[in-house]
């Protein structure tokens, strides 16, 4: 009978320890989700006289369509997590590739 009382008490302690471990794990994981991601603001190379006409998101990328003067027909691709310019799409005339 003495061994059974010891075993029941020991299992109670093990169950309580397991509950504490689960509670601490849940707390740690939820607080890590609440931390803001590192985001370094960057100045986007938007030509003078241009303005953002449209904005669209695709996965981690943000697409900015510029409008304004003739040299503003551009699409800027920005990484949504870091804010860095990933690419720039335009016609060959705007890029200076046409002779």
What does this structure look like?
The protein has a four-stranded antiparallel beta sheet with strand order 1-2-3-4. The chain is rod-shaped and about 90 Å long. It is built from two helices and four strands. By secondary structure, it is of the alpha+beta class. Strand 3 and strand 4 form a beta hairpin. It has two domains: 1-35; 51-95.
Total DSSP helices:
2
Number of domains: 2
Summarize model confidence as the mean pLDDT.
82
Q: How many extended strands?
A: 4
Strand order of the largest sheet: 1-2-3-4
Compressed to H and E, one letter per element, the order equals: HEEEEH
Largest sheet composition: 4 strands, antiparallel
- Portion of residues in helices? 25-40%
- Which shape, going by the Cα principal axes? rod-shaped
Low-confidence stretches: none
Structural class: alpha+beta
Q: Could you tell me the radius of gyration in angstroms?
A: 28 Å
The CA-CA distance between the termini, in Å, is 98 Å
Beta-strand percentage range: 25-35%
Which characteristics define this entry?
99 residues; alpha+beta; 2 domains; four-stranded antiparallel β-sheet; 4 strands; 37% helix; 27% strand
Topology (elements, then pairings):
Blueprint: H1 2-34, E1 51-58, E2 61-67, E3 74-79, E4 85-90, H2 92-95
Antiparallel strand pairs: 1-2, 2-3, 3-4
């Amino acid at each position: 009978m003495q061994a059974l009382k010891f075993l029941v008490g020991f299992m109670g302690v093990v169950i309580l320890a397991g509950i504490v471990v689960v509670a601490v794990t849940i707390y740690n994981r939820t607080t890590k989700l609440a931390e803001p991601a590192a985001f370094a603001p960057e100045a986007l190379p938007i030509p003078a006289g241009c303005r953002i006409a449209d904005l669209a998101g695709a996965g981690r990328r943000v697409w900015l369509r510029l409008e304004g003067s003739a040299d503003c027909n551009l699409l800027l691709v920005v990484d949504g997590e870091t804010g860095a310019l990933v690419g720039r799409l335009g016609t060959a005339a705007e890029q200076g590739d046409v002779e």
